């Protein structure tokens, strides 16, 4: 079982924040415990104090199903306006455990341990998210790195799921089903859940859907942009038929892996694909950009595009031509003069 050093654990946290599309500012060094960071995107920022340790098996004398962290601090510091996280990391399978700091706010004995059961960790690997009632109203949450920011944003309400056992069961049931490609959440799925916790269940379910789509699309395209082949962990999963359209789906065949430049160019209708998977450039848009003197880089831009997009090896993952033609129609491509690349 690989055990990460302090710095590697903190790097894992930073990398996970970035994977969620957020950025990190450091208030401490990467090798510090706790790690003080501020995470932010364009709209929000959250200041954090993070305690993390490797999750390890409890050993022969313990329950076979039990994993735990051993806390090597006297107490968890809690500061106003700062969220304190207590995390475990199981490197073998790439999953975090999150514990409720409010339940461990006193003086900790030397090397005291906090547990989570293995089944919860396993379910998180499969579904992205899972919660476990530890009794005493403490809920431990397990999640994959792409859920770290959602865990942080919903920290208190997720751990509060333990206030009613039926909320937790309903939550787990929705999450189990949310990974199915055709799942759509409706009110019946969450009516069992008490009012204050319905929104966190909705948020997490939505995130499970998005993350499932992103993972499937990036895997199908080997994390490279369909238009230019760039990887560099900069690639997004874009919908061909946009989410805003009622006929949009989260099927892999409604997705394209795109780098930020080509994602923006696709959304701005500068480029698209046709039903033969050829790259099309919008000549009307090019002419407009020339006319207003905003066409710097156009030749380099066109030079980076493949004449045909990169296609996933599995036929079922390739863009469904029906989605391609409908999306082009709804996006207004019938009105534009286009050119292909040679
Ligand atoms: Zn690209």
Question: In words, what does this structure look like?
Answer:
The structure is a single chain. This protein has 342 residues and is an alpha+beta fold. It has 11 helices and 15 strands. The protein has helices at residues 6-19, 118-127, 148-153, 155-159, 165-178, 187-190, 195-220, 260-267, 283-291, 298-304, 321-330, and strands at residues 23-26, 35-40, 45-54, 56-57, 66-71, 83-90, 95-99, 112-117, 129-133, 139-143, 236-239, 255-258, 271-273, 279-282, 338-340. The strands form 4 sheets. The chain has a 7-stranded mixed β-sheet with strand order 1-2-3-6-7-10-9. Strands 4-5-8 form a 3-stranded antiparallel β-sheet. The protein has a 3-stranded antiparallel β-sheet with strand order 13-14-15. The longest helix has 26 residues, at 195-220. It is elongated and about 70 Å long. Zinc ion binds at residues 225, 227-228, 230, 259, 261-262.
Q: Provide the structure class.
A: alpha+beta
Largest β-sheet summary: 7 strands, mixed
Q: N-to-C terminal Cα separation, in Å? A: 51 Å
Identify the quaternary structure here.
single chain
Number of DSSP strands? Answer: 15
Q: Unreliable runs, pLDDT <50, ≥5 residues?
A: none
What is the number of helices? 11
